[in-house]
Amino acid sequence: MKTENTDFIIGRHPAIMALKSDQEINKVFIQSGLKADAIAQIIKLAKEKRLVISNVPKNKLDMMTDHQNHQGVALAVAAYQYATIDDLFDNAAKHGEDPFFLILDELEDPHNLGSIIRTADAAGVHGIIIPRRRAVGLTSVVAKTSTGAIEHVPVARVTNLVQTAKELQDRGVWLFGTDMKGKDYRTWDAHGAVALVIGNEGKGISALLKKTCDEMLTIPMIGHVQSLNASVAASLLIYQGFNSRHPLK
């Protein structure tokens, strides 16, 4: 695992999920004056881990969390841990399944990344790959938007997505990108080892990465707006992958 910058986990549910996981936590900050029953589980879990709990005024918690909706709780974490590509394959093997990965090409909005991680966890995706540069990483906003899913879906951060894509192909993974000229996503059969490539919110998939993909998928649209939010498009595609891998009996 690779360690990155220090950050905060904010919000009650993300805090509970983090405290239940193996995430390394330095300190727990609780807003002074909160009703005990609202944060009882957080305090109990923190005490079980023998963590330092600090009661701080709301304005200090606001400043620490950059005025985000912290719900009176913030965990100072040593760092988010990024997985390796091998970790992703190991996760699939642990579940006794063919790998199902996501490759996110220069996604910039932390809310989109958090939402995609949440959907990925729900649909049994074994890991996510993001680039080190020109893309959002695992921040407190991502963690909060994922509502705790960030603790369960390994995320690898790589220097070169194209090289990583070729490595996946060498290891038997079939790459599916998204393009207006692709085949209807509803026909996609995601059996076997697959990776779904989701492009940047505005530019889509970069030309070199698109060229590396084995096949392209498209989401048909008949309305007036011919584009979807990145996390919404990703969710549709992820669940088509889930549907084909886990058909109704």
TrEMBL record:
Keywords: Methyltransferase, Transferase. Residues 8-83 form the RNA 2-O ribose methyltransferase substrate binding domain. Pfam families: SpoU_methylase, SpoU_sub_bind. SMART domains: SpoU_sub_bind (SM00967). It comes from the Bacteria. NCBIfam families: rRNA_methyl_3 (TIGR00186). Belongs to the class IV-like SAM-binding methyltransferase superfamily. RNA methyltransferase TrmH family. This is 23S rRNA (Guanosine(2251)-2'-O)-methyltransferase RlmB.
